[in-house]
Every structure is written in structure tokens, then in C-alpha cells.
Hints:
Elements: E1 4-7, E2 10-15, E3 18-23, E4 25-28, E5 31-35, E6 38-43, E7 46-51, E8 56-62, E9 68-71, E10 76-80, E11 83-93, E12 96-98, E13 108-119, E14 124-126, E15 135-137, E16 146-151, E17 162-165, E18 168-170, E19 175-180, E20 183-186, E21 191-193, E22 198-201, E23 207-211, E24 232-236, H1 247-251, E25 254-256, E26 266-271, E27 275-278, E28 283-285, E29 290-293, E30 296-298, E31 302-305, E32 308-311, E33 323-325, E34 327-332, E35 337-342, E36 354-356, E37 359-362, E38 367-371, E39 374-377, E40 380-382, E41 416-419, E42 425-426, E43 429-430, E44 438-442, H2 464-467, E45 485-489, H3 490-495, E46 500-504, E47 508-511, E48 516-518, E49 532-535, E50 538-541, E51 544-546, E52 551-556, E53 581-584, E54 589-591, E55 596-598, E56 619-624, E57 638-641, E58 646-648, E59 653-655, E60 661-663, E61 668-672, E62 675-678, E63 681-683, E64 693-699, E65 702-705, H4 712-716, E66 732-735, E67 744-751, E68 755-757, E69 762-763, E70 768-769, H5 780-786, E71 791-795, E72 798-801, E73 810-814, E74 838-841, E75 846-848, ...
Amino acid sequence: NTSVVSNHGVIETDKSGSVFLLSPIVENSGTISTFFGQAGLIAGKHVEFESGTGQQDISVKECGDNDYAVNTEQGRIYGDYGVAGMYGRVVQQDGLITSVSAVKQSGRIELRARDKIVTGNKSMSLCPVTTSNEKEHSSFPFEGGEITLSGLSDIGDGKLERIEHQGVICAPSGKVRLEGSQRVYLESGSEIDVSGLWIERALEYDVIKAQLNTAQLADEYGQKYGLLHGEWIEFHQRYGSSIGDLSGHLANEKFTAGERSTEGGEIYINVSDGDIICRQGSSIDFSGGGIHHQSGLTDTTQLISGNRLYDISEAPAWIKYDKFAGYFENIHERYGLVDEYKGVFYGSGAPIKNYISEYTEGSNAGSLELIARNVVLDGQINASVERGIFQTLFQEPEDENGNQSAAGYVEPKGGTLSIGTAPTCENGYVANDSRIEEIVVREEVDSLPETFGPEDEIPDSYFKEAENESCLKKLEYQSGQPVYKTMLSAKKLSDAGLSALNLNALTRVTIDNDALLSLRPSGLLLENESNLTVTARNIHHRGTVDIPGGKAVFFSASNITSGIGNYGAANPDDYVSLKDRIYIADGSKILVNGKQIDNSYVNQGRGILSKSSHLDGGRVQIENYSIRIRPDGKPTSEVVVEKGSLIDVSGGYEIDEQGNVSGGDAGVLDIQGATLVLGGELKGHSLVGQQGGSVNIHSGLVNVKNSLAGFEDSMDSVDFEDEIPDDLHNTCYLEKDYFGETGFTNIGLTSVRELIVDNGVHFSPSMMKMPDPFPNSAQQEMSFKNFTGFGTHIKNGLVQVSPDYITSSSVLLAAGKNMKFTGTKDAIPTVFFASQETFFLPESALISVPSEGSISIDAPGIELSGQLQALSGDVQLSASINDIMLNPGSKILAGGYNRPQTSVPANNLRTNFTPVDGGSVYLKSKLGSIDVEQGALIDVSGSTPVVNQYKGADRTIYTGTVAGDSGSVSFSYHDDLELSGNLNAGHHMEGLMGGSLTIGRTDTEEALSIAPGEIDSFIDSGFDAFTFSSYSDLVFQPREEDLLIQAGRRLTLDAPEIIAGNNWNIHLKAPWIQLSNTYDKYDLQSLGSGFDPGVLIPDAVESGESILTLQGDFIDVAGSLGLSGFKNVSLEAGKDIRFDEEDYNKFWEGKLLAPGDF
């Protein structure tokens, strides 16, 4: 059928009308115009219309082999505020199609075909944004225009084969989708543009008028009943108001469609079985726009207090204000005239106003997602943003109450480019197909030949340079079919202005040794966001990644090419022979260190002032989740950080115009893999006073050794394609001082199986810091040579400081911990499951952290013969299955210490010290026992006395003696507790607090017993505050004489039932006594979320012949509990006795059951 419908004239409709031209062949060289309606050229034999949202959904059910729809160069289709579309076997768009978007209505263009869509080189498919001044509230949803080129349907014969784009597609801040099955071809000269708009904004729209009512002045106690209450004020959004909560006015403005369209939009190109070709000279633009704020004079609210004048942006909130400035009346009584003067006057007939300079506020760029078996990116991409001079923060500034106080300070985020689909990981297996098969990133990539056409196959010569390199062996499927390779230019990606790049491939991603991949620092990242994400079974990084203060993720997991399917089903046809390995090669760099900024040049008239919020180091995650196993049963999850490589998460610094230095904290490094070979250089340094880096290692087995002698040759010989030597497999060997010069002050080592610390090892965080930089970078070398401050010596441009200058530190040792696989364990081989080995610290081994740091050991069981030292810090031992045992000679040292003064002492004074209290020690055996054997030591004693010097007002020097309080010790056990060792909680001066001791039993069937004489020994050890808690009963064991427990500070008994045997007198004395049955003591992770504490609360108690007397200043009874075995219970308080209910999650209750006299 060659029937034709052609329009060479003008067809217009009323508002909401529609125009459809239907025929096997449809042509338009005239004008078709609809308004809030729909216009369509529909070429087909069988067409169905269905009511959609606002417009008709058009479905072409049958096309002839000769059917086509064409919009010629002279053709004009206007579908403003509605839908304009073309449909058929072949769609040829050579003319103009527009659909304008408004603040309440988005325009839409759709080109749908079965075989091919072609846009001519003079074609324009546009969804412009209206220039109307109509505004809507920011809470009203807004979407830019949408342009879609796709098939007649997403399945079967309706899938589109090819798209050839030669013209212009533009939808500011909108969405563009191109979907085909064989090829999307972007010809040289073509454009796809969803960039944000640039808007000129007059000064008057930046001045906000707001009324200060009770809600706005809720936290301003000095102004609630003053001059400002109920009054209207005016302030500039960039300066804000120092009085009142005006966050609602700042965040909830009304905007025009243009102002809502300043951010870049979204571009999505998907080819299910073929490739995406972006020819040299083509352009894809998803950059951010922004707002040019105009300059001018403005009146903002002025307040008068006494003889001072304050602008509302700087007015102190605690001052009483007398009146508003800006209005004055001069009354001429004789003539009955009144002269009114509005504004602030000062010796002139013209009012004084505030001049606001013009400034730029850039908006975020958008995103581009390319999904195909292969991508050729010869064209240009633009993901840039323009950062205004004030846009230096991650979020808008806030006042002391957490309310937004001004606007226009958030740094814009560059665009996001995603190559391939982000992985969906289930059980360590990528369940979805990324579609991209292999990615190679080189500094430069040759373009396709000039003669290459839309129908041509990519020539083999295009891949020749990469394939000839020995490190990139050609990959093939089991059938012999080659793996498609995507070549990307690092220079092109770096020049694009991207803030986020996602490279997702099925088999391998290689960043070549000449590639420098630089990404723009972004604003605040969400938890699951990163600047660079590289995902593949095999990752080979040989180049340089540079993201100041950013986040880089290298992620490996099994997928359909691994030879296994989800939940263990085999996929032999998709198998590709390849090692599941992340390889950080010699010479490669991953740099996410904070920026180093020197503004001292500015005062010398040189350079431009630079401000940045990216002083903190970023985060690097290198994690292999592969669940494949070798024929010998060992896992293939491997990470190699080769000697000569560098990973840097150090903090940066900024030198201001006056030469003052401020620093940033170092960042975080996470490395996970069953096999880890770590030989590269790691950096997590910071300036003195800033936090050092954090490093977390998770491997099959971690072994900290005195020396790697015997392993060095094996570790150095591991190349990209080499097999991991058997002695390194499923392990991670670390020399004891591997982190010594790295600057990392927080170290976490985790094993799936046992974690081994060799005899004689002294393991501690790094003490290396960056020296303070010297203003004016030309004199940097002087700062290293003349540095005499906090450190003892300089090495490799770093200074080793005293532990007193480490702001925070920690060591975590964890064994028997599964890797972070998601979902169920059905498909994970048992070799990946955690073992139940006991962690053992040998006799001559020492784990230490600087003062006030923390040490945590988490394992199925723990046995200590060596020492743990964290003066004034925290030590936590947690055994999940087996016992905790402290052998004779073992020591846990958490006593107090005296921190030296860090500033230079005044003349004629020596260095003073600040006493720091003793630390805390917590031992928890979840299902087993705790045994502190004779000869073992736990020390939480207070710091020793020290004599400080002070200078009085009369400049007389006098001295004072100071010391610190004692710390705390806690034991939580299930089976038994044996305390034969030495507990030291003494203090060294009168008037100081002794130690706090907590003993808790977590068995719901067995009671916690308090033995005769036990508490006396605790008191002799320096404890004066006690807590005894039990999931079950708390029992006072029988004795021949009466029991007197006299605590110097506090005594807490926490259990569902407290029981006494025999006929004896129990007398408990303390300034503060607590009888309770708290809900917080229960470990719901162990007991289950459905645990009901009510089953442990007794319904009745048994009487007896014992007497219980509680005597103190304050006595608290909390929750529901019973007292059994007593004939008399007496609570005697010098001040208050308080009874309170307890929240038991499912109910509130409070009752005290006593069988006899009370």
C-alpha cells in the first residue's frame, strides 16, 4: 500500500486539540501546530490509540515494508506544552519539531520506529523552556522537556534497530532517551543538549521579606517579647539574618520555569545488542547552568540599640533593640505639614543604601548513561559547571540551632557519566548484565576513520594498539566469540568537567599507564555515591586517578562471565577465562588527598584567592566480592597492591592571606579480598592537630609478622597475569611497621579465619605527620629544614610526633568475620565462611595506641598472654562463641596519664600537664566464660600527681598539684567469671573518684552470684562504684556472718529478681543506690527481636528469714523486680527515694515485689 498523506500547508487547533496524519506513508513539509494538545505523523497499517495522562498513547501494531514518516526540512511541528511525535517503520526527521515546557507542564517529543530513525543534519528537535514569568513554589514538582527516540515497543518486532542522529536535540534541564537494538550513531556535527539555562536575576528577587513571629523567634529568647516580634524585616538571601529562624523563607521560594531549569538534565542511550558510536565532531552537553545575580542598591533592615546601628545580617541576637532605622518624620506644626524620609540618612539628602555586587551561582550538571556492548566516544562531552566565588561549602550555612541561615554557598556538582549498568549484587554475584563487555582507558584514543559510515563495522585496526600490549591479552567467550572492547580517552573524560564517572564492565577494566583521569571535586556525596566507580571481574589500574577529597571505588564481583550463575547455576556459554583480581600496578596512583591551597600570594598582589571545602582527604574502596573458587578449593577473590604504587587519602591544608594555616583530616582506605598482597605505598597523613587516616583491611587470614623475610620474593613476583603463590593465597601478610610511616592512626584488621600476631610484634598506629607548610610556596623547603615543633625527626618530608599530638587513634583486630556479601548464603562456597578460631596474643607481643585511643579485639574466642596499652583510652574484648582468657603475665593498661601542654609556656614557667582520667576496659563473652588468671593485670588507675606552675595576676608564680580520676572495668559473660588476677583502679589524691566496676551475666537460666568477700577485694583494688546485672536472678551467696557492702560512690543491682539464702542480714550502703530491672541490659541481637523481658519478671516472690537494708542519700527503684528470701526490706534515704517505670519495648511497667515487711 503506497497511500500517502501529505501536508504542505498550515494546520492549527484550538487549545488542547490534536492533529494526527495517518497513512502507510506520511509527509509533512508544512506547519502543524497544537497547544496543550498532540501532533503526530503516524505511518502504519494498524494503529491503536489509548488514553494516556493528558494525551493519547499511540501504538503502531503493523507496518508495511515501505512505510515511513518524514518531516522535511521545511516541515514544522509545534506541540507546545503537549506532545509532538512521529511513528512508523522508518522515521525521517529533517525539519523542526518543538514542544515548549512551562512551570506546570512539560513538553514532550517522541520519535518511534521499527527499523530506523534518522534525524537530518539540519533537523532540530527542541523542548525549550518558556520565558514566561509565571512562578510556582519550589515544592511543586517540575520536570524539563522529554525527547525520546525508541522503538514502537520494547519487545519483539517493536524494538528499534538503528538510530542515526545528525541534527540537534535540545531539552534544557530535560530528559533525552535513545534506545535501539543494533546501533545508535551520532554523526559529526550532531548535538544532544540538556544543559542547564543561565538566568539573569534582578537584585530585587534576592531580597526576602519575612515576618518574625513566635515560630521564627522560638530560639531567640532575647527577642521574643522585644521590638522585633511580629515585625517584617528585609534581608539579602546571601547574607541572611542573624536573628530568627528564616530557613523556611530561604528554602521555599517561588521560581519561574527558567529558574527551575538551571541544572543539567539526563541523557540515556541504550543499545541492547550492539554499539554506540559518537563520531568526532559530535557533541553531548549535560553541563550545569546557573544564575547571574545582578548588582545594585538595596535597603535591608537596620536596627538601633543605644547609639549603635546594626544591619539585620550582623545584629547580635542577645541585644535589646530600641527601634528600626529607616523612617523619619519632620513635622512642621505651623503649616501642618509632615515630611517623610524613608531610608538611613547620614549628613546628606540622599539615603544610604547597601551596594550588592553582582555574583554568579552555578547549578549542578546532569548525567549521561551509555549502555551497549561497545561504546566509541570520539565526540565531545560537556559535564562542566561554573562555581561562583561564594560557592565553597558542601551545604548551605546553618546557625547554632541547625537552621539554614543563608543561601548561595553550595558548591555545584559536575556531571555524571556512566558507561554500562551499575551492578546489582546478590550473594557476591552481579545479578544484572552491565552490557559493556570490556573497557580500556588510555590517555588518548585514535578516532574512527573519516570514511567510517553509519552502517560500517568497527575495523580491527581501531583496537590494534591495545591488543598488542602484553598486559591486555585478547578475551574470548567459551564459544570463541571475541569480547567487545570499549576504548575511552582519559584526557577527554578529564576535560569534560565530570564529578562522577562509573565504569561498569562484565570482564575487565584497564586504566593504562599513560592515563591521567582527573575528576572535579563534588559537593556532599550520599552514602552509596562515589566520584569514580570501577566495576568488573578484573580491574587493572596502571595509570593515575586524581580526585581531590573525593571517593574512588574499585569493585570486583562474579557475574555471568564467571562460569557460574546466580545461586550457583552454571553459565558455560557466557564464560570468559579471566582472573577475578584487582591489580594496582607499579607506578600507578590513586589520589584523593585534600587540596593544598596557598593564598599568601594574594597579599603580595600575585595570584587569585582560592577557597575550597575539599581540605579533608577522601575515601578509596578496593573490594573484591568474587565467589569463584579454584580447582583446589581456594577462593579467587584477589587484590594486589604492587610495590611502587601509591594510594593517598591524606588531608590537605589552606594558608590564608595572612599566612594562617588550617588543615583537613585524612580520609579512609578500605581493602577487601580473600587474598591480599600489599606492597604499595599508602598515605593517610595530616597536619598536627588534624585526624590521621583510617585503613581497614579484610582478608581470608591476616598475619602481622616481625618481618616478611621469606615472603618478599613471592610478593614482589606477583604480576598482573601471574598465579598467586600458594603461600600467599587466602591470606594477607603485614610487617609490624607496615603502617609506621603511612600517617594512618586508625587501623582495622579483619580476618575471615584466624588473625595471627606473631611473637615479639609491637603493633601501633603511625606517628608521622605533615609539617606545617610555610606561607609562600617558594619557601616550602625552609619549613622542612627549620621545623622544630612537635616532632623528634624529619623523614621523607614528614615529621614523627610524640603520641601526645595524635588527636584520635584506634586499632581493631577482628577474626571470624565474613566478608560483606549481601543476600542469603546459598551461592557462597563454604571457604568464604568465617571460622571459629580463638585469637591469641603471644607473651612478648604488644598492641598499643596513643593516649586516649582505643583497642578493640573481636573474635570467636580471645586469649591474651601479651599486652594491650591504651592509656586513658578504651579497650574492648568481645568473644562471640568461646571464652576470654587473660593468662599470667598478660596486661591491659588503660590507666590515666598526664597530657603535656601543647602551647609554648609563658616566660619563666615550665611545661604544665593536664591530668586525664583512667580509661575503660570492657570484656564481653557472648556465649562463654571470662577467666582473668592470677598474674594477669587490668589497670584503669588514675593518673599520678603532677605539680604545675601558674602565674597570678600580680605575676607571682605559684604551684598546684593535680591528678586524674580512675576509670572503669566491665565484665559481661554467659557461663562463668573467674577473677583471680589483679584489678587496679586506685587513685593518687584525696577527693578523686575511684574506679567503676560492672559485672553482668547474660544467661537467662542461671543466676549471677555475689560471693562472700568478693566486693571487699574490689574495694581494696580502688573501685567505689559497682553495678551487678543479670538476665536471670542476682543471688547473694550464703555466709556465716552478716554482709556489709559499703560503696564509696554508687551501687546498682539490676536483675528481674534479687535472692538471698539463709537467715542473714544484708546491709548495702552507698551515696546512690539503684534497684532496677532495665531493658537496655538485654542484647536483642543475641536474644532475638521478639524477646519478651516480661517472662523473666516474677509474678510472686518467696519469703524467707533474711533482712535487706539499703541505706544512702538517694535510692532509685526502676522497672519491675522481685526480692525473694527476705522477711524485711528497708530503704533508708538521707534525701530522696524515687520510683519509676521502665520501657520494656512492648509495655511500660514498674513494680517492686517484697514478701515480708517493707
